[in-house]
Amino acid sequence: MSVKLRKLSEQVMVITGATSGIGLTTARMAAERGVKLVLAARAADALDELASELRVKGVAVATVAADVGNIADVERIGQVAMERFGRIDTWVNNAGVSVFGRLEDVSPEDHHRLFQTNFWGVVNGSLEAVKRMKTRGGGALINIGSEVSDRAVPLQGMYSASKHAVKAFTESLRMELEKEDAPLSVTLVKPAAIDTMFAVHAKNYMDKEPALPPPIYAPELVADAILYAAQHPKRDVFVGGASKMISAGSRAMPGLFDRYMRATMFKQQKSPVTTLPGRRDALHAPDHTHELRQRQGMRHHVAENSLYTKASLRSGPLMTALLGGGALFAALTLSRRLAR
């Protein structure tokens, strides 16, 4: 890609899902680097609190209470950004939520609500970003996918489907923009399991509280990848070596990785804690008790660094290929253990 991107200190950045997890971490890290911010989320009170926190530090912030699944709300995000700052340099489509449970058990309205946020939210945000940026100097569009963009998992089937759809949409949009030489960089970020409020916010149909399978990485690693892609055009970014390993292994040995998922994911996505009646979630409306939190505090070790991600972001094509080969070797090793 030959797109020229501004330094962070000169940028106006839109972040959706900005009041929790990856979005919250990215907003705070971007603020530290002098970015002007347009923050969007469903919870107006949490947005106001976050904006006050950042303004005390001298950060220029605009907020928009918005549901990304609603086209009119997303158009309002773009309008506020233009009215306040006159342009958008980076748009981060981060908002997302999950449902844990067997596909047959989940209600149709919950399936549809998940897709409305995870997929249509990305579509709405991407098209609004392109409309606002394409003729005003260009910039970076960054969509948050997942390791399950490449490999589906049981018990989060519709979440996996939504992230597969996000990948397909992002790749199609990128090719169309490149065909017309639009001054836009389009990046898909694929995090592994991240220590956020993801499992707490998810709707749960299981008898146990949902959990994330290890290895689990810190949200700062995803935020760092997002901020890097905002300045340096990247096609894909895998956050956490496990994400790349799962992707490479699933492509090379899909059947074996089906067996691996069957053998591990049904257990690893359930915590020992029994699900209580009336459990709250953030599928249809924000859960105010868990806003403005970026980490859950997992039972497992949380990796604060990823040598794979750091090297892949800052290396050339040859080194990236070598790193991919290393991930494939790790996947092959895992498959041999599984076969035994």
Describe the structure.
It is a single chain. With 340 residues, the protein is of the alpha/beta class. A 7-stranded parallel β-sheet has the order 3-2-1-4-6-7-12, with helices on both faces. The protein has a 3-stranded parallel β-sheet with strand order 8-11-14. A two-stranded parallel sheet has the order 5-9. It has a single domain, classed as Rossmann fold. The chain is globular, with a radius of gyration of 19 Å. It has 12 helices and 14 strands. About 3% of the residues have low confidence.
Write the SSE topology.
Elements: E1 12-16, H1 21-32, E2 36-41, H2 44-55, E3 61-65, H3 71-85, E4 90-93, E5 99-100, H4 108-118, H5 120-133, E6 139-144, H6 157-179, E7 184-191, E8 193-194, H7 198-201, E9 203-204, E10 208-210, E11 216-217, H8 219-229, E12 236-239, H9 241-252, H10 254-268, E13 270-274, E14 302-303, H11 307-313, H12 317-339
